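Incident review: delayed structure delivery

Summary: a single-chain prediction request sat in the queue longer than the usual turnaround. Root cause was a stuck worker, restarted by the on-call engineer. No data loss occurred. The affected request and its eventual output are reproduced below so the record is complete for anyone auditing the incident later.

Affected input:
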Amino acid sequence: QLQLVESGGGLVQPGGSLRLSCAASGFTLANYGIGWFRQAPGKEREGVSYIERSGGMTDYADSVKGRFIISRDNAKNTVYLQMNSLKPEDTGVFYCARRSGYGNSWWRPIVYDYWGQGTQVTVTS
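Output delivered after worker restart:
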């Protein structure tokens, strides 16, 4: 059945870059809005970025605006999060999720119906 699988996390120095992938199976990713979230130890899960169904809007948390870029490759059924100029406060488990409703804003986890298992991003010197 449907799956979302995150990959691309790892250990990186401040100022470095990582590219996260969210690969979907069992459904056509282009037909759904996809959000990226992160969760640091002891903190709530927070929205990082969002891309609407194919051709739609993108948005970013203020804390990552200008540093991160979200994109799609529909042929690969994959959404990417290019993360540049990484900071220690970016550290956490990053999750992608499939949006199911529009009663709340994209950064509210309640609007997503399926989540991947997450990939760890650690930014440290």
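Verification: The longest strand covers residues 18-25.
Action items: add queue-age alerting; document worker restart procedure.
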